């Protein structure tokens, strides 16, 4: 089966006036359909750079990224991107914010509008369609952002620390909701996070990057028993703490580079 994402020798240097800095070097990785993969590593190891390249927002200096076999050369409706900030427009109501992606791609019609309402309901936002972002909590706004991303049916979802600004309890609830929704839809996802326990709880694989330059240091496979539990309960499974410590130890070595 063709991998959803394939990185081949991806290298990126940022060019300044007098110098170039190598942000990531020779990254190779394949991600299969329905996989949920997390990128972790010390600050500056290239997580956001890599996500921007996969999103088609940045062209790598060398190498290539393919999504469903097609080389990524710019932003594509196949790839959804969800960030730490929800970026909802304050003057649009929740339904109009959630339908923005459909509108921008010329796909908003009666059927897709109803689908957006259904998805808002599914995300626990029933009755909020007419409300405005300022009337919602941070966790609710992030759920609207998720609906906006999912309703266009991207085959690949990129998540750049989407839970990090939320209170702990809301964060756990949202991890559960996102993980369950993506599993149900068979969506492939890549999550960037600084929270190692979150990475293990939601992922099938945790990719540890190192810095100077950013490279893949080690790939950890999350055992099925942990992977098949909802994220909230995954943390109680046998082997979770051991895997946490194993990755943590390696992460300290990656950070000392
Ligand atoms: N626009 C830019 N211009 C120049 N250098 C950049 C730029 N963006 C990132 N870098 C450099 O590239 C390297 C990787 O940065 P990146 O933001 O991708 O890392 P990160 O792992 O996401 O970091 P963090 O965990 O702190 O968010 C760093 O050395 C950073 O200073």
TrEMBL record:
Keyword Protease recorded: no
Keyword check for ATP-binding: yes
CDD domains for this protein: ABC_NrtD_SsuB_transporters
Keyword field: ATP-binding, Nucleotide-binding, Transport
SUPFAM superfamilies: P-loop containing nucleoside triphosphate hydrolases
GO MF annotation, one: ATP hydrolysis activity
Domain spans labelled ABC transporter: 5-236
Any Pfam family the entry gives: ABC_tran
Name of protein: ABC transporter ATP-binding protein
Organism listed in the record: Paenibacillus albidus
């Amino acid at each position: 089966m063709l991998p959803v994402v394939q990185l081949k020798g991806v290298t990126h240097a940022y060019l300044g006036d007098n110098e170039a800095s190598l942000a990531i070097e020779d990254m190779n990785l394949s991600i299969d359909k329905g996989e949920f993969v997390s990128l972790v590593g010390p600050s500056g190891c290239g997580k956001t750079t890599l996500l921007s390249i996969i999103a088609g927002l940045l062209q790598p200096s060398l190498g290539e990224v393919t999504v469903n076999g097609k080389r990524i050369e710019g932003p594509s409706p196949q790839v959804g991107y969800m960030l730490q900030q929800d970026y909802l427009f304050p003057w649009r109501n929740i339904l109009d914010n959630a339908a923005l992606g459909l509108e921008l791609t010329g796909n908003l019609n009666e059927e897709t509008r109803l689908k957006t309402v259904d998805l808002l309901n599914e995300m626990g936002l029933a009755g909020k369609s007419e409300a405005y972002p300022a009337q919602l909590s941070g966790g609710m706004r992030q759920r609207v952002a998720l609906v906006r991303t999912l309703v266009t049916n991207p085959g690949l979802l990129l998540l750049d620390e989407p839970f990090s600004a939320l209170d702990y309890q809301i964060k756990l609830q949202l991890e559960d909701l996102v993980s369950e929704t993506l599993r149900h839809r068979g969506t492939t996802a890549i999550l960037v996070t600084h929270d190692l326990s979150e990475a293990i709880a939601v992922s099938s694989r945790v990719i540890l990057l190192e810095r100077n330059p950013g490279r893949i240091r080690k790939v950890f496979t999350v055992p099925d028993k942990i992977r098949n539990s909802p994220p909230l309960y995954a943390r109680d499974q046998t082997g979770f703490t051991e895997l946490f410590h194993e990755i943590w130890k390696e992460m300290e070595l990656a950070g000392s580079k």
